[in-house]
């Protein structure tokens, strides 16, 4: 059997305790649920033993069915034709008007509590209705918020790609300049092989030319990135 709902005092505490059904989420229960799901993927909470029923989320409430959240009972109203119809773009003036009505109703509630405390209930119900209306208006901005968030993320991605592309182009241009300097040997002292002994073999001369070219390359690299010492 599912655990009883927590008391209202526990829910309204400054730091409420977690719901009692968290104790059902043990490794052994989760492993047992996984095995049962392999045998029957379409099982429901009613098909499970009591200790596993809390592991599956409850079905959404049907129209006109009551449900509880944070210790309060709410009723799920049926969808009307206006709810199923396409929504108009949210109107900010409607939200401002609802907020002003909330402030006026709150002032009226405080006045009732100060002068005639027994008449607070209608004003409180009116405030709850206004809060529900304001919440519905804010939810109408969810698609707009999601669209703007995606646009912002794509703009950041485009800027990041442009910066990376620019950095790659600059690096390629710098590498091209380094290779051209190596090819020209700018600022490098060329070996004077003519002043050496003419009896040297061709292989020795080729080796000296190769070593001079390698030294020239390393000198250019040290000029660009610094010494490796």
Task: Describe this protein's structure.
This protein has 229 residues and is mainly alpha-helical. The longest helix has 43 residues, at 142-184. A two-stranded antiparallel ribbon has the order 1-2. It contains 7 helices and 2 strands, in the order ααββααααα. The radius of gyration is 38 Å and the shape is elongated. A hairpin with a 2-residue loop joins strand 1 (66-69) and strand 2.
Give the structure's gist in a few sentences.
This protein is mostly helical. The protein contains 7 helices and 2 strands; from the N terminus they run ααββααααα. It has a two-stranded antiparallel sheet.
Identify low-pLDDT runs: none
How do the helices and strands follow one another from N- to C-terminus?
Answer: HHEEHHHHH
| Chain-averaged pLDDT | 79
What structural category characterises the helix and strand content? mainly alpha
| General shape | elongated
Q: Main sheet: which strands, in order across?
A: 1-2
Largest sheet: 2 strands, antiparallel
Strand content: under 5%
Key terms:
mainly alpha; single chain; 3% strand; two-stranded antiparallel ribbon; 7 helices; 229 residues
Fold topology:
Elements: H1 8-11, H2 27-39, E1 66-69, E2 72-75, H3 81-84, H4 92-115, H5 120-139, H6 142-184, H7 202-225
Antiparallel strand pairs: 1-2
């Amino acid at each position: 059997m599912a655990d009883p709902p927590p008391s209202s005092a526990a829910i309204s505490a400054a730091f409420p305790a977690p719901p009692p059904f968290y104790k059902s989420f043990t490794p052994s229960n989760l492993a047992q649920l996984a095995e049962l799901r392999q045998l029957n993927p379409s099982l429901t909470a009613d098909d499970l033993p009591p200790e596993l029923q809390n592991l599956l989320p409850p079905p959404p409430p049907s129209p006109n069915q009551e449900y509880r959240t944070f210790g309060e009972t709410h009723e799920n109203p049926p969808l009307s034709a206006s709810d199923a119809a396409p929504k108009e773009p949210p109107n900010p003036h409607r939200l401002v008007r609802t907020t002003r009505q909330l402030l006026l109703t709150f002032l009226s509630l405080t006045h009732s509590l100060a002068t005639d405390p027994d008449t607070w209930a209608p004003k409180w119900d009116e405030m709850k209705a206004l809060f529900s209306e304001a919440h519905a208006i804010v939810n109408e901005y969810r698609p707009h918020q999601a669209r703007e968030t995606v646009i912002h993320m794509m703009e950041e991605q485009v800027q990041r790609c442009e910066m990376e592309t620019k950095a790659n182009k600059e690096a390629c241009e710098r590498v091209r300049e380094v290779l051209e300097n190596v090819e020209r040997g700018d600022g490098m002292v060329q070996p004077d092989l003519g002043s050496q002994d003419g009896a040297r073999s061709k292989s020795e001369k080729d080796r000296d030319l190769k070593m001079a070219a390698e030294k020239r390359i390393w000198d250019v690299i040290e000029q660009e990135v610094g010494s490796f010492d």
